[in-house]
Specification:
Strand content: 15-25%
Radius of gyration: 21 Å
Oligomer: single chain
CATH class of the largest domain: Alpha Beta
Distance between the termini: 65 Å
Order of helices and strands: EHHHEHHEEHEHEHEEHHHHEHEE
CATH superfamily of the largest domain: Vaccinia Virus protein VP39
CATH topology of the largest domain: Rossmann fold
Shape: elongated
Length: 290
């Protein structure tokens, strides 16, 4: 039988927060709550309803190990093995990009427009852990979402996350480069969505060490000017303008890419497009009507 320590749950939370703060971890309170609740296989509310309970020795030791990993730079969500996105839980693992909050705004826009336009067939190009494809499948009724990625890890994780979130019959997953696996289905697809790599080599040098050391380089770094994948996807769909006329493309973009994106749009003679800002009033979403 495991023994309890002399520390309460509340005391350990406060100590953990202080330790993370001292190590200059952002959001130390939130991370301390997440790690403490994780070792108890419960949620953050449990901490406050059990504030004066004594913590067990084995739980405290496990928490110490996780705190050490975190302060050495390992991303929180790789330690936890999951991240919440669009109110859904997605499993994560090293080698697959950690979803960002900004991508939720992309998905929300796609879902909103699709409900208004009655769109039902989508493609998620470069699906990673599957957050875009699965969220669309979950929140757009009677939808089918084709998801592609070149990574075996990403493909496997997307399949697992689709099953966990109850949309395994709505998400069709294919391994391959960009649009290549979608050729047999291209006529059916109404909306293309992608959050492609867009960090250029200069920007890569200035990224946080936590990102550079732990997250997959191939999911972040784009060749040349950072517009390589935007150019590849758009040009592929423009090869047959008649076939794809009226279809929609939604991209997540970096505010640093906006001028380059506009030049690309002009060069490709795309007339119908829109750049939308995120909650921070920064350019974040590119919407194109082919």
């Amino acid at each position: 039988m495991e023994k309890n320590t002399s520390y309460t749950i509340g005391e350990i939370l406060i100590k953990s927060e202080g330790y993370l703060r001292k190590k200059r971890i952002k959001n130390p309170r939130l991370e301390a709550e997440l790690l403490l609740s994780f070792v108890h296989s419960t949620d953050r509310l449990w901490i406050y309803t059990n504030w004066f309970e004594k913590i067990r020795d084995d739980k405290l030791e496990r928490l110490r190990q996780l705190l050490l990993r975190r302060t050495k730079g390992e991303p929180l969500h790789y330690i936890l093995g999951y991240k919440e996105f669009m109110t859904l839980r997605f499993y994560l693992q090293p080698g697959v990009l950690i979803p960002r909050f900004e991508t939720e705004e992309l998905v929300e826009k796609v879902v909103e427009d699709s409900r208004k336009g009655n769109f039902r067939v989508f493609a998620d190009i470069g699906c990673g852990s599957g957050v875009i494809a699965i969220s669309i499948a979950k929140f757009v009724e009677n939808s089918t979402v084709y998801a592609t990625d070149i990574s075996d890890k990403a493909i496997k994780l997307t399949a697992e996350n689709a099953e966990v979130n109850g949309v395994e019959n709505k998400v069709k997953i294919f391994k391959g480069n960009l649009l290549e696996p979608l050729e047999p289905f291209i006529d059916q697809i109404e909306v293309f969505v992608s959050n492609p790599p867009y960090v250029n080599h200069e920007e890569w040098k200035s990224l946080d060490e936590e990102i550079v050391k732990y997250e997959p380089k191939e999911a972040l770094l784009a060749p040349e000017d950072g517009l390589f994948y935007y150019r590849a996807i758009i040009e592929n769909l423009l090869k047959n303008r008649t076939r794809n006329k009226g279809k929609l493309i939604y991209f997540e973009i970096s505010p640093t890419r906006i001028e380059g994106v506009k030049k690309l749009i002009k060069r490709l003679k795309i007339e119908r497009y829109e750049v939308l800002n995120d909650m921070s009033e920064k350019a974040r979403i590119l919407k194109i009507v082919l």
